Structure to design on (616 residues):
């Protein structure tokens, strides 16, 4: 018995020793290969001491350099997409082009199937820091924007530390990025254009019509210079160059005329009739006249001056994009001082049965809460409704756009 | 009581279920894990069957543990060096191979041990492949990473998560039990020397 036990113990010890040597041997064989593949650690957020890089973006977790393969490997954690953040691995070569982009950890995101369907991740391969060919995915905007943002942060980290050269964006790309900013009426709160693409003609190579009826924009060329021409039903034509400067005054009048003709041919003339809802908000006998507000490019689709016995009022109709990227209708009447004297909203979040789990919203109280607000004392609080964030953001956009329209209108009139 | 606990089918099954479920969210993950498990199982079975005669019953379980863990560690290192894609895919579940394979240990002569290890490993591999394929197909509307457009509109996302994996695992178990009734009891599957001799004879 004792002999058997001793033999077993010796066997176990021998087995352990042999296996330990074997594991040690395999480790010795594979460690150089693993380390070479990993490369040199330049930055690790979990161990910032000894970092060789300055990293400002929170999305960058680690950066490795691999001289054998001439690549940089970055581990990224995106900002929150639709449901959660995601873990990415970005590989960029020394020329500053993306070799691969993979999602290591999708977190709780449910839109990965949509991204796969649209070949979103493969679209990054071969791109430089401009990410010119990468388009956000409709229906997965937040997820794709989160990934896009993290990759951009990765590139910025490499550029800021002089590891790669920054690629120069073409004028076309600069104008493409400018479009949702210059014509905010065509984009939602995430700056994603909502509407349909248009075929160009003449000086316009292509265009885009806003879904909410605020207008359209065109990519045009004048004397070899690429420009963005925005047509707003209320604001007329505004022209921007690739440096984001407004160059309307310097634009050829013939070009302006061409853009107006092209735009009205495609999206129709402006509807100047006062909406029924606005009519009911005005005093009896008030006379409303449609007005133009040059330079306006936001979500305001209609503007009128209203002469009453008490003085002049200003009526506006705004259509920002809300939940599901659907346009929401907001109506405002402002007095001569720019204070809101009446407000109505035809928006689904007001309907009691839309959000059954929310406390019932007092529609009248919500609308009355806007009365007396001006651009100076409006702080965004009145627009907010708990549980209806996207719609609340649209309401906030509407009132700010109306205040901008009022300012432009009164400034232009002196 | 201890015998009943150790040899209870549910207890033994769950040693292998949890890491198997974690690494079978997609067909490729299941393929990687299944192949790694098969290789580790065969190598460790070979070593253990050669040492069988030299070890007392009480020492065999410890030897099984050491051997399987060592081979699992070597498999993980080799994957990280030569198949980094597969290693990234498996993550730390490659290390949990050690826990999975403990339940497959058999103490027989070398030839018979290798034969039964191969059969057990292949069955485990096949089960994992079917589980991985079904989870990926109906959870993500894809197979081996290639999208399946037909199923895009009727995916069941929870199948890609652990909870859905458990449900699908239970369904597959029911199907297997129905197709192959009267299977061996769990006590026969456990390493015969997992218990001290005195308790076995009791």
């Amino acid at each position: 018995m004792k002999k058997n036990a001793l033999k077993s113990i010796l066997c176990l010890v021998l087995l352990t020793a042999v296996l330990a040597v074997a594991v040690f041997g395999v480790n010795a064989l594979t460690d150089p290969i693993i380390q070479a593949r990993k490369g040199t650690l330049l930055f690790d957020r979990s161990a910032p001491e000894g970092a060789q890089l300055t990293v400002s973006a929170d999305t960058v977790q680690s950066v490795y350099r691999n001289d054998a393969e001439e690549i940089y490997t970055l581990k990224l954690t995106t900002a929150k997409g639709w449901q959660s953040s995601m873990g990415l691995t970005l590989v960029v070569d020394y020329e500053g082009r993306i070799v691969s982009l993979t999602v290591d950890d999708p977190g709780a995101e449910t839109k990965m199937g949509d991204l796969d369907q649209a070949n979103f991740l493969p679209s990054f391969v071969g791109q430089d820091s401009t990410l010119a060919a990468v388009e956000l995915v409709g229906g997965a905007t937040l997820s794709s924007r989160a990934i896009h943002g993290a990759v951009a942060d990765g590139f910025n980290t490499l550029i800021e530390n002089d590891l790669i050269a920054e690629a120069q964006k073409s004028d076309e790309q600069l104008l493409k990025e400018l479009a949702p900013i210059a014509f905010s009426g065509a984009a939602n709160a995430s700056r994603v254009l909502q509407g349909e693409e248009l075929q160009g003609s003449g000086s316009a190579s292509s265009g885009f019509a806003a879904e909410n009826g605020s207008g359209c924009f065109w990519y045009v060329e004048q004397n070899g210079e690429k420009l963005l021409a925005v047509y707003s039903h209320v604001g007329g034509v505004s022209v921007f160059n690739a440096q984001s400067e407004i160059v309307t005054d310097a634009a050829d009048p013939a070009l302006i005329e061409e853009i107006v003709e092209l735009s009205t041919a495609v999206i129709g003339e402006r509807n100047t009739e006062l909406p029924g809802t606005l009519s009911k908000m005005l005093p009896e006998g008030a006379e409303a006249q449609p007005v133009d507000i040059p330079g306006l490019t936001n979500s305001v689709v209609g503007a009128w001056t209203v002469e009453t016995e008490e003085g002049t009022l200003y009526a506006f109709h705004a259509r920002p994009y809300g939940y599901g990227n659907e346009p929401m209708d907001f109506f405002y009447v402002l007095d001569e001082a720019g204070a809101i004297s009446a407000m109505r909203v035809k928006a689904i979040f007001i309907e009691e049965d839309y959000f059954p789990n929310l406390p019932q919203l007092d529609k009248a109280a919500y609308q009355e809460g806007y009365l007396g607000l001006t651009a100076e004392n409006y702080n965004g609080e009145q627009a907010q409704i708990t549980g209806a964030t996207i719609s609340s953001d649209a309401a906030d956009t509407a009132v700010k756009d109306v205040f901008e329209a009022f300012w432009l209108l009164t400034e232009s009139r002196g | 009581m201890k015998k009943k606990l150790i040899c209870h089918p549910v207890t033994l099954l769950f040693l292998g279920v949890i890491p198997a479920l974690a690494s079978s969210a997609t067909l490729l993950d299941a393929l990687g894990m299944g192949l790694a498990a098969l290789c580790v199982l065969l190598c460790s079975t070979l070593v253990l069957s050669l040492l069988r005669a030299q070890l007392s019953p009480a020492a065999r379980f410890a030897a099984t543990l050491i051997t399987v863990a060592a081979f699992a560690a070597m498999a993980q290192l080799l994957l990280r060096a030569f198949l980094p894609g597969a290693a990234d895919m498996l993550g730390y579940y490659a290390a949990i191979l050690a826990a999975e394979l403990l339940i497959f240990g058999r103490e027989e002569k070398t030839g018979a041990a290798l034969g039964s290890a191969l059969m057990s490993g292949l069955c485990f591999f096949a089960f994992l492949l079917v589980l991985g394929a079904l989870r990926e197909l109906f959870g993500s509307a894809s197979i081996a990473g290639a999208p399946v457009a037909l199923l895009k509109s009727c995916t069941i996302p929870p199948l890609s998560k652990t909870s859905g994996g458990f449900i699908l695992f239970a369904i597959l178990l029911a199907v297997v039990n129905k197709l192959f009734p009267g299977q061996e009891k769990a006590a026969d599957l456990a390493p015969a020397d997992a218990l001290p001799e005195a308790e076995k004879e009791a």
